[in-house]
């Protein structure tokens, strides 16, 4: 997230695109205007399926048209994404009985709760409580926190992140400090549901979660979205939620257990779940609303291989109305991710100005990323352009507005050949490749590229590192921590006219050059490394390659 001050409105490339073509200008005025517009209060935080969605989609379509794109979905600009909105009301406290004392945890302050089930009422009564450590079932590691355990109808209490997250390096069954899919909260809820748990509760800790309690509170209260699918998600647990660490300490003490000691035990292979001797009761009503949201799809058709597609993606949504700070209850989402949509439009303008490539370029603005990557997941499962013909691409979630950087970070490096194409482009811009500074945050699994990766399409997830031209890594790391603590998913994520866009331009030049390389070299077909969990599905999708 980093750049040069006082640059003109059009900045030239810092990395030479493929085939030694003159570097295009990245329209900085577009970055500013689109970000400022979409993050203004008039767009009310861009929550999907709210009145603000129509305004947001219309603006993105307008900008794609002006950039020179064509409607990308059989003559339409949009793809309907069936959604169901479930809003919990009259949420009862989590009441735990059977211990030394009854423990009652209040909604929002001590805990948050919701459900994936599309039903009018949730009621859990006297559900036995079991501590299942990190809640991981990983056969390839011989690791199963549910081994020998029947949790049907019971409540599981789970720790966030992986069992080896405190390891300094990346050695360990779950890549050490780097978070894996097993460490992410969606996995923990999915695995609990697979084992039949009535309720799944994650113990929040700021460091391994990678964000503070206010982020959990704002994200898990109010309307919650899911894809509207057959079965109404009745295969999921009745209750999913989080509790504050202080509340967890109180809970375990009531059960006569030491949470710290159990946490240490859970970090060792062979750990066995521990019944707490407690029972949980809670419940709430659900207000249900079914309504389609929309992805926006624009295309720059290819000339000689138009059925092959290079994909650029970014999510247009944010979380809308949220917990007020000093009377402001609009989470504007300027950096996250109005800036990413601005980058998408700026790249569309630059690529269209350069002229059509041999392969088609698709510019995809997806909905409901903040609700669990729903828009990208729906597109990946119902693609407008077959994934077997999707060459690869770039996802943009948050642009760098802190200034130029000396380095570039590849998230979850070591997974795909698309990294090999990006590295010389980064080097041509005079930057080095740095390891992820905070791999424990699991960024690779938290944005829309993951929806495509799971189904075999290699997408670059990389951006400016923390080694700023002005201030070095100390300044860069401080900027990252400041954003997470003070603006991320809060009303304070608002557009600032003094932002330095030069780092965003550096990154967009990499994305431009990579996309042009993929689109003009029809012999390129990047895949995953043989050690990657996504290689098999890529090979199966297009065996002729």
Largest sheet, strands/sense/barrel: 15 strands, mixed
Anisotropy-based shape: globular
CATH architecture of the domain at 86-288: 3-Layer(bba) Sandwich
Q: Average pLDDT across residues?
A: 92
* Assembly level: single chain
**Record field, number of beta strands:** 24
Spatial separation of the terminal alpha carbons:
37 Å
Number of H- or I-type helical stretches: 14
| Low confidence ranges | 1-19
Q: What class do helices, strands and sheet pairing give?
A: alpha/beta
The CATH top-level class label of the domain at 86-288: Alpha Beta
What is the alpha-carbon Rg in Å? 23 Å
Indicate the proportion of strand residues: 25-35%
Instruction: Give helix % range.
Output: 25-40%
CATH topology of the domain at 86-288: Glucose Oxidase, domain 1
